[in-house]
Amino acid sequence: MKRLTVANPHGFCSGVARAVATARKVLSDHQGEKVYCLHEIVHNGQVVSELTAAGMVFVQQVDDVPPGSVLLFSAHGVAPAVRKAAEARNLRVVDATCPFVAKVHATVREFASKGVYVFCIGHHGHDEVVGVAGEAPDFVRVVEDENDVRSVSVPDGSKTAVVTQTTLSAEKVDRLIDALRRRYPALRVPGGTEICYATRNRQRAVRRLAEVCGNVLVLGAANSSNSRRLAETAQSAGANAALVSEMSDLDGSPLLDSARLGITSGASTPESFLDAVVNRLMCDYGFTGCDVLER
Ligand code: SF4
């Protein structure tokens, strides 16, 4: 008998739920008018497709938005320069930045105003990191890995602090903070790290899931940082793990031969996708039951 076990918690976090609800409200408040969103509202193809079908236009830069239009900022936040560019075009901005990301921006502003250089641990080019670094471009250095820690430099090593992208793996952040501290002993670590509660508790849940199920599917987009970290966390806990971005990713997956298959989903993955995957696994792949791994 083959069974499915779903991690708890999984799926939408509060920041994503808030951003998606904001997007739907903006669309309903401005019916008959084109509504724009800068970058993906959250990193998930199903969410973006649903909003596109409802009339939202996704753009890559503020210059792509006609002056005077409504523009939504995504959950990942934006740099002050982007806000200024929107103001210059008289755009009517609606801000769906997650409050946890906004807190990281505030921390960077505070440090930079005191002349403290800030290492931002995160992925180069990720929307959230671009926004955070843009708070104080002269004071922020993005470090993604040990190589970056070795090569990064600041004008005054006695005045340094660290912040992190909210969706990283806790182990990796701890490792990089230790490496930064070895180079910069005066490094300030404000109140722990900024990995948000949703990232931490989903990683904890997938670690437990990996311990009881040898194989784990992580439902989430390839460009979703938190989903990729869930797959890595399951692997580091000893399971085989695969990212499933769309239904066709299931086809031919060797993980589906398991007697007990674990499933979780990233913080930007809608529950409707998880329901659809569970249905397909029950109908087409011989799974006969589905339970939830309690916390
Ligand atoms: S993962 Fe955390 S920081 Fe990112 S949107 Fe969700 S609650 Fe906010």
Kindly describe this structure.
The longest helix is centred in the N-terminal third of the chain and has 16 residues. The two termini are 24 Å apart. This protein has 3 domains: 107 residues, 4-hydroxy-3-methylbut-2-enyl diphosphate reductase, catalytic domain (Cobalt-precorrin-4 Transmethylase, domain 1); 85 residues, 3-Layer(aba) Sandwich (Rossmann fold); 84 residues, 4-hydroxy-3-methylbut-2-enyl diphosphate reductase, catalytic domain (Cobalt-precorrin-4 Transmethylase, domain 1, 3-Layer(aba) Sandwich), CATH 3.40.1010.20. By secondary structure, it is an alpha/beta fold. It contains 10 helices and 12 strands. The chain has a 5-stranded parallel β-sheet, sandwiched between helices. It has a 4-stranded parallel β-sheet with strand order 3-2-4-5, sandwiched between helices. A 3-stranded parallel β-sheet has the order 7-6-8, with helices on both faces. Helix 4 packs parallel to helix 5. The structure holds iron/sulfur cluster. Iron/sulfur cluster (SF4) binds next to helix 1, helix 4 and helix 8.
